Known about the structure:
The protein is built from twelve helices and two strands; from the N terminus they run ααααααααααβααβ. The protein is mainly alpha-helical and about 200 residues long.
Amino acid sequence: MNRDYIIKPMNELISNANHIDRIPLLSFNKMIGNPEKVADFLEIFFNAVNENTPKQTICFKMVEKIAAPEFYSEVIKILSGKCNNIQTQTIFKSTVAIPNDIGIVRESIPIITSKIREVFDAEVMYHGVCLLYRIISKYPELEVDLESNYITFGKEELDICMKRFEILYMWQTKEHRGKTKPGYIDSIEEFMDFTLKFIKFK
Length: 202
């Protein structure tokens, strides 16, 4: 994140957000202590994640609603550290704005795929795949990078995953609680077609 952005007032970011999100964002900002600038917000955010406090949920929600590509590298920085499955899936869900710098995005792909592998969980896998789908939708040329960072799961992991995925609303945009968010996949078939490009089962 560049210096010009890090010293921006939080009120400016909130004013530039979708109009239906501005009032909730003002409330969220107040709940975490009214940070004045982006730098102050990031300090609160990183401390909340490191200490695993409830404030982190509010911060992730703010990142999602502000939807600024500048937050991408900061969230990926968190992802590259130690994250539990709830933190990981929340990171994947809140990362809705993909930056215009393809280099930053390319560097994030192995971090995302390794975290899907490391934190084996159906929700983590689903939201991780949706994040990767958002990335490839913006940068189709990165599909080669994605395929070279493939993940391998065994039969036991596949069976666990499939049992969890029996509840279809976890997969399908039209029934999923994230249906209003951009970048979610329209059907199980599309989900599987995209997933099998970089997840292999042995």
